[in-house]
Design goal:
The chain is an alpha/beta fold. The chain has ten helices and 13 strands. 39% of the residues lie in helices and 20% in strands. β2, α2 and β3 form a beta-alpha-beta unit. It starts with a strand and ends in a 5-residue tail after the last strand.
């Protein structure tokens, strides 16, 4: 049985990956790299570790010990968490961070540096979508409720805005109302962006999430799930538009059931169709 590694952050996608990988006959070596990961991972994984993302050398040496040649990075590891106080980074992590200080602390720069470190020990990083393509819906409006004309205008405006901030490697999500940007995703992550934007809009805002131009599918592929919808409900947002074929839709049935009950419109759109 072939081994595959999973570096897990917060959310349901690591668990989704585990289920699919097991169905395909893989033995999954899971390392939770941040506090708050799904408790079920420990039960589902063939081998399970908890090692801080700042213990980079320990993570890599553990994967080597477990004879892992391929690994996937799934789940949220927010920049907000990265900037908080933590255990002391190991020497390998310190060298990496010192090197990055000469460049930038953008999302892709940090993750690409980690990919390069893994490669030094013969470990390649898989496309995040390799096992999860069925979770990436094509263009459609889910369920019956359709966007209004004004909401369509906000969706188009928000899509262009999200692509612009993505090109700057800032984030993937914007909150829009009446063709005005209420919030842009930054260090705090998607859910905090939604809550902040919804609060400023007061009610009726549109949330748009897209892939970055030139998105590297090995990491940070856009994803939504039940937490996304709950953040929208908390801040009285009314529409969620995601990029078709390029966004992972976790917990789909639960999300759509709650959205229909609460009158939230959810749709997947392509850039060329707007």
């Amino acid at each position: 049985m072939e081994n595959v590694g999973l570096l897990a952050g917060i959310g349901t996608l690591p668990g989704e990956f585990l289920d699919v990988a097991h169905l395909q006959g893989y033995r999954v070596i899971c390392i939770a790299v941040i506090p708050g990961t799904d408790l079920e991972l420990k039960e589902k994984a063939d081998v399970y570790y908890e090692i801080s993302a700042f213990k980079l050398n320990k993570i890599i040496k553990t994967l080597v010990k477990e004879n892992v040649k391929e690994v996937t990075l799934l789940g949220k590891v927010t920049k907000e968490w990265l900037y908080k106080d933590h255990v002391m980074p190991d020497l390998r992590a310190i060298k990496l961070l010192n090197h990055l200080r000469k460049q930038s602390f953008k999302d892709d720069t940090i993750t690409l540096a980690i990919v390069d470190e893994l490669k030094k020990d013969g470990i390649s990083v898989l496309d995040q979508t390799k096992y999860l393509k069925p979770l990436m819906p094509g263009p459609q409006v889910f369920r019956k409720k359709q966007p209004t004309k004004d909401q369509w205008e906000d969706i188009k405006f928000g899509f262009d805005a999200a692509k612009t901030i993505g090109a700057m490697d800032l984030g993937q999500t914007v909150v829009v109302k009446d063709r005005a940007v209420m919030a842009v995703e930054a260090i705090e992550g998607t859910d905090a962006c939604i809550k902040r934007g919804g609060l400023l809009a007061r009610e009726g805002a549109v949330v748009v999430k897209t892939a970055k131009p030139g998105q590297d599918s090995r990491f940070d592929v856009p994803a939504i799930g039940l937490t996304t919808l709950k953040s929208m409900l908390e801040s009285k947002c009314t529409v969620l538009a995601i990029e078709a074929h390029r966004t992972l839709f976790a917990e789909k049935e639960k999300v759509l059931e709650l959205a229909e009950r609460e009158g939230i419109v959810i749709l997947a759109v392509e850039q060329g169709s707007l």
